[in-house]
Amino acid sequence: MSDQEEKRPVLRLASASPRRRQLLDLIGVPHVVTPADIDETPHGAESPGHYVRRLAGDKALAVRRLHRDLPVLAADTTVYIDGVILEKPRDEADCVRMLSLLSGQRHDVYTGLALVCEETPALVVAHSTVDFRKIERAEMLAYWASGEPQGKAGAYAIQGFGAVFVEKVSGSYTGVMGLPLFETAELLRGHGIPVWNGGLKGGE
């Protein structure tokens, strides 16, 4: 097989997130990026698990309706604490509000996955918990000024500067980043989409 054939996309990723693209690359899944644009407003007292499952499914179906050449993978991540879903911060004050809630506390991170090969999405939800140390207000303001919290659920990125706030992670570290790799690989392989296999060939 030539290098060109090996790199031929096998999947369409319904996300503009560079970290999700990097994570897919880590498990050897060549893909193209087609972001989905949907309303991400929670529905009333919607549970965080249902919320990320619904959004991932809606994103995958939105892209699949426009592009039917490849299977579509979508993901959505949210941070949840004290009965509140933390979306992406609107501004500095919203970032400080979210980080104040997380400071010195344990919170939940849910990531929903959706894979559409035909019409009906296959759905998976990964759940992790994250413990934060106490965060000073000056740190919160400096963190917002760094630009990193913008566009991040819960106003932090565990793979970036936000890592200094994290005492402990239980569950999927890559799920907190936005794409749980174990669950993603299992979902793809279960639908006949190849992932990195250590060089093993079929039957070996």
Main attributes of the structure:
7 strands; 7 helices; globular; Maf protein; disordered N terminus; 23% strand; seven-stranded mixed beta sheet; single chain; alpha/beta; 204 residues
The poorly predicted ranges are 1-5, 199-204
Class inferred from helices and paired strands: alpha/beta
Major β-sheet annotation: 7 strands, mixed
Q: How is the CATH topology named?
A: Maf protein
Radius of gyration: 18 Å
- Please state the overall shape, judged from the principal axes of the Cα atoms: globular
The number of distinct structural domains comes to 1
DSSP strand tally? 7
Tell me what portion of residues adopts beta-strand conformation. 15-25%
Short synopsis of the structure:
With 204 residues, this protein is α/β, with parallel strands linked by helices.
Describe this structure in words.
The chain has 204 residues and is of the alpha/beta class. The chain has one domain: Maf protein (Alpha-Beta Complex), CATH 3.90.950.10. Helix content is 33%, strand content 23%. The protein contains 7 helices and 7 strands, in the order αβαβαββαββαβαα. Strands 1, 2, 3, 4, 5, 6 and 7 form a 7-stranded mixed beta sheet that branches. 35% of the residues are buried.
Write the SSE topology.
Layout lengths: L2 H4 L4 E3 L4 H9 L4 E3 L14 H19 L5 E10 L2 E3 L5 H11 L3 E11 L5 E11 L4 H10 L19 E5 L2 H5 L3 H10 L14
Parallel strand pairs: 1-2, 1-3
Antiparallel strand pairs: 3-4, 3-5, 5-6, 6-7
Helix pairs in contact: 4-5
